[in-house]
Amino acid sequence: MQTNAQALLLSSSNCHGFSLLEFAKQEICSFLETRNVSELVFVPYAQKNYDDYTKKIKDAFTPWGFSVIGLHTYSDPAAAINSAKAIFVGGGNTFLLLKTLYDNQLVHLIREKVITGNLLYIGSSAGTNVATKSIHTTNDMPIIYPPSFDAISIVPFNINPHYIDKIETDTHKGETRDQRIEEYMEMPHANPVLGLREGCILHVNGDSLVLKGVAGAVLFEVNVSKKVEYPVGADVSFLLNYAKETC
To answer: pTM, whole model, 2 decimals?
Structure first.
């Protein structure tokens, strides 16, 4: 899959020991500044109170020298995306986010603009989920139904944000994250799943994928019995080879 995509896909906006988005400040500022971007369009669709959510993100970005405008304040969301240089898609409920993107006919538009290099994409949690092949590996409850689980497909695989291993001393006997992902891997439509630990950032730079941030990731692959660990700094560009005809 030939792509000119430029994206930062964050496991979450919050990371232990840091204020909102602080763990990703250096990467975000460099990502935007080197591309001469000073204004972000924020997509708050994963939560219900758009104004409050946008204010929270604006309060984080303003001290860094960037302005933030909520997509919900535009009368024509598609026109706003068409004129934007960069968007930040926030976290919340992935099903709600994807449905609202479909309702506003933005899924294919965002994909086209990002893949052609005409729109920078920053996603966090649910915003990262919808940047992938599908939302099958989100941790969220299906509180509402999007018309499809197919997502924007900036990358041709799936991501599991907030990935965490089972703690051996934990007395909880419910399913672990690994078991849930393994259930997905048994499906005929399964894609590789990159589990982003809290504080992990996947930097998409055309045909390059590199793990950044303060934590690494794990990879689950179809018909591979063991997950593979990747530290911060690892090059996982080989995952782009999983592109299929629908990508």
So the answer is: 0.94
Count of Cβ atoms closer than 10 Å to residue 61 Cβ: 21
Query: How many residues appear in the chain?
Result: 247
The 10s digit of each residue's pLDDT in 95-129 is 999 999 999 999 999 999 999 999 999 999 999 99
* 3-class SS of residue 138: coil
Q: What is the pLDDT of residues 26-82, one digit of tens each?
A: 999 999 999 999 999 999 999 999 999 999 999 999 999 999 999 999 999 999 999
Whole-number Å distance between alpha carbons of 38 and 96: 28
31: tokens are 């990502």
Q: Which residues are catalytic?
A: 125, 140, 162
Helix (H, G, I), strand (E, B) or coil at 7: strand
Contact 189, 148 (CB under 8 A): no
Ramachandran region, residue 18 (left: φ > 0; alpha: ψ -120 to 50; beta: rest): beta
Checking DSSP bridges between strand 120-124 and strand 86-89, what pairing results, if any? parallel
At the top level of CATH, the class of 6-242 is alpha beta
Nearest alpha carbon to residue 219 among 232, 207, 228: 228
Structure tokens at 183: 């259930």
